[in-house]
Amino acid sequence: AAKRAGPGSLAFYTPEMTVSSANRLQLLQQLRQALQEDEFVLHYQPKIDLATATIIGGEALIRWRRPDGAMISPGDFIPLVETTDLVHPVGQWVLRTALHQMRIWSAASLPPQQVSINIAGPQFASETLPDEIAAMLAETGIAPHLFQIELLESLLLDDPEKARRQLIAIRKLGVTVALDDFGTGYSSLAYLSGFPVDILKIDRSFVNNLAEDAGNLAIIRATIAMAHGLGIRVVAEGVETDAQIALLHRLGCDLVQGYRTGRPMPAGDFARLIAADPVTMLPPALIKLTTQ
Ligand code: C2E
Ligand code: MG
Ligand code: MG
Ligand code: MG
């Protein structure tokens, strides 16, 4: 291997790397084709308001349905997409598909849902993003306050002044902004308070062992207190147990999203779910607890 190579040998070029860059090229080719052949799909994961115990909307999450029927999760292709020029067409596809889906639900007179999409770094950095969102809102007639974008906090840090301008332009449309996977970056909430955002999504690594880990409990409690002090609402991600829901409610968390209250699902399943109004996906024992 290259690491053990002696002087004069071709360091850094290992057989494994050759294979993996060939794989990378092949995967990229397949992803371009996937876009052309319309092989991407969005699934929607419910977000539940703990104050009313009802679904208020969902997060759109991309999947790749291969011609052989295999469903590929975003973790296996989005990192590659985000480092290539595919990031723009894929991002535009997500924006268009989510808003057109909302249009379909609205035309079917389903209760209005707030839908969020994930925005990649290069997409957020693009000067044209606010106009693209505005154009798609106009095309579909969706009320801007029902639409939300999710960003990693790291996207704000490269060029904070540019990020702030971009956030202002997007929020001016009436669209809301959520900071995704909050707590996994290195920035403090105090620093982030300089950016206009509407929602913090506490990363699931803090929620995981919330009931057992006093440290994570303290972090979540402090995050909620500071966020509320700044007028920011809080979503807990990755909620998997009733104990977590009960605790998060006690801590004043506004919304939950996780396998316990609904996995990401195809648009048709999500529509059936929200067709009943008002609808809850909270475990029955917790409905009373949260709404009393
Ligand atoms: P994310 O935006 O933080 O999305 C939440 C992820 O956590 C989703 O994984 C979701 O299925 C998963 N999750 C939700 N509840 C639970 C739970 O209770 N337990 C556990 N263990 N996991 C839970 P998914 O769909 O595989 O997406 C992974 C990441 O891929 C997303 O993280 C997001 O960063 C990225 N991604 C997904 N869709 C898009 C997209 O359309 N565009 C871009 N740029 N990135 C996307
Ligand atoms: Mg997200
Ligand atoms: Mg997240
Ligand atoms: Mg994530």
TrEMBL record:
Residues 24-278 form the EAL domain. This is PAS domain S-box/diguanylate cyclase (GGDEF) domain-containing protein. The chain holds residues 432 to 723 of 869 of the full protein.
